[in-house]
Amino acid sequence: MAGEPAVDHLVQLNGTEPVSYTDALTGLGNRARLRDKIAKLTAERADDPAPFTIGLVNLDGFRPINDLFGHAAGDDILCQVAHRLRASMPDGAVTVRLDNDVFAFVLPLVFDERGAMKISDLFQQVLSAPYDLGSRTVRLSASFGFAIYPYAGKDFAQLLESADTALYRSKRHGNGKATVYSARIADEMKRATQLEQALRSATIANEVDVHFQPIVDLRNGYPIGFEALARWHDVELGSVSPAVFIPLAEERGLIEALTETLLFKAARAARSWPEDKFLSFNLSSAQLVNPSTNVKMVSILEQADLDPQRVEMEITETAMMADPELAYRIVDGLRDVGMRISLDDFGTGQSSLGRLREIAPDKVKIDRSFVSEITRDRPSEHIIKAIVALCEGLDMKVVAEGIETEEQSAKLQSLGCYTGQGYLYGKPIDADAVQRYLAGLDEALTGPRYALPA
To answer: Does 289 reside within a domain?
Structure first.
C-alpha cells in the first residue's frame, strides 16, 4: 500500500497569501489539503458520481496521555500515528491530521460500506499496536466514522459533517468501533444530541433525582442498607433509563457534576434513616481518575451531615483499570475517613484475582447476570459458589444483585450468600417512600417478608 506523496508546505493561490497544506507536527496534510482533495474528486465525478469514501479516526483514551506523561509524549504518539496511517494508505488515498487526535483520510477506491469496514479493521490493527515512549509503552484503540459520496453528501462540508456524525456514533458505543453514515444513523444521533442537551439542562437545574433500593438480609428480608440509583424524568422525553443517560453523562463530561449532586441528595436522605442502615453509592469511572475525588466526597458528606462510616462507595473492576495507581490512592483515601468499599458487577470485568487482593474491598457484589441463571445454569451456580468461597477466605462480604424469585434467594442462601437486593425485596423508590417504609418496619416484623411496595 502507498498513499499519495508528501504535500508541498505552502501553495500560492491566485496571488493571495500562501496557504499551508501541511500539519506542522506530523508532516501530514491538514484540513486545507483534505478540502482540496475532496473538491477535486467531486469535480471529476460530478457527471458520473462514482462513489468514494472519506473517514475520520479518533484515538480512544488519548486525552489522559498528556496528563499522565506530558505533552511531549502526546505529540510523540501523534507522530507515530501519522507514520502508521501514511504507511497503511491504499493507492491513491490521502491522510491528514484535522485536529488534536483526529485524523482524516480520503479513499478514492472504496465504494461501499463493506470496503470501509475492511479498511477500518486494517487501520485498527495498525493503530492498536504498542506506542513506544522510550522507557514505557502505551496501547490505544481507535474509533472510526465513514461517509460515502454521494449518498452522505456531495461536497466537503456535507461529507465531513456526515463522517463526524458516524464517528460520534462510534464513540457512543464504546472504544474501537466503526460506523458508516446512513439516514438511520443521522436520526439516531439527532436524538442523542437532543438527549444530551436535555441532560445538560437537567443537571444544571438539579432535576435528576435519586431513588433507593433495599439491600437485605436474605434470611429474613430485613433491610440493612439502601443503594442510591439515579432516576430522570424529562417533561418532553419522559422517563429516561439510567442505562442511557449515565453513559451519556460519562461521555459528555457531565458525570462528575451529576454524581456530586446525587451524592448530596442521597446523603441528606440517609441522614434521617436509623443509624444501622447504610447508604451504598456508585462512584463513576471519572471519579477514579480525579485526584480531588476524596476531598469532594468528604466535603459533600460534611455538608449533608452524614457520617462517612455509614457510606459504602461502589466501584467497578473496569473503572479501576483506567489508572490503577491513582484509583488505589483514591480508594485508600475514602477508606481512611471511614467509608467502606464495595466492588460492583464482580465477575464481568477484566481484573485479575491479584488485583482483587490489591483493592481489598470490604464487600463484593455478584453481578445479576449470574444470579438470574443460578437456578437453571450449573456454571452460574458454580461461579457464585466459588465467589462466595473466595470472599470468605479473603474476609470480604458478598451481596447478590438482581434477585427476582424465591428460588434464586433460596439457592443463594444454600451457597452461603446471605445478603442481596432485587425486585423480590423491593424496587427503587424515592426518599419519601423510604421514610414511610422504614416507619412501618416495626409493624411488619411479624411477616415473613419486608419488601418495599412495588
So the answer is: yes
**Is residue 31 one of the residues assigned to a domain?**
yes
Q: Which residues contact 55 (CB under 8 A, 6 or more apart)?
A: 104, 105, 107, 116, 119, 120, 144, 145, 146, 147, 163
Q: What is the pTM of this model?
A: 0.70
**Helix, strand, or coil (residue 420):** strand
Residue with cell 491522510: 95
Dump pLDDT digits (tens) for 117-148.
999 999 999 999 988 888 788 888 899 999 99
Interior/surface letters 172-186, b for 16+ CB within 10 angstroms, e for the rest: beeebbbbbbbeebb
- Residue 350 sits in the same domain as residue 246: yes
Residue-level pLDDT at 282:
96
Q: What is the Cα–Cα distance from 321 to 166, expressed in whole angstroms?
A: 28
Residue 62 CA, chain-centre distance (Å), reads 15
Q: What is the pLDDT of residue 1?
A: 54
**Residue 113, CA distances (Å) to 54, 149, 339, 445 in order:** 11, 11, 51, 63
Q: Do residue 328 and residue 384 come from a single domain? A: yes
What is the domain extent for residue 166? 10-181
CATH code for the domain of 433: 3.20.20.450
**Do residues 361 and 342 touch, judged by C-beta distance below 8 A?**
yes
Q: Are both 288 and 390 inside the same structural domain? A: yes
Highest mean pLDDT among 164-168, 343-347, 376-380: 164-168
181, 212, 228 — which closes off a domain? 181
For residue 45, with 0-12 CB atoms within 10 Å meaning exposed, 13-18 middle and 19 or more buried, which class applies?
middle
- Please count the structural domains in the chain: 2
Q: In whole angstroms, what is the distance from residue 101 CA to residue 81 CA? A: 9
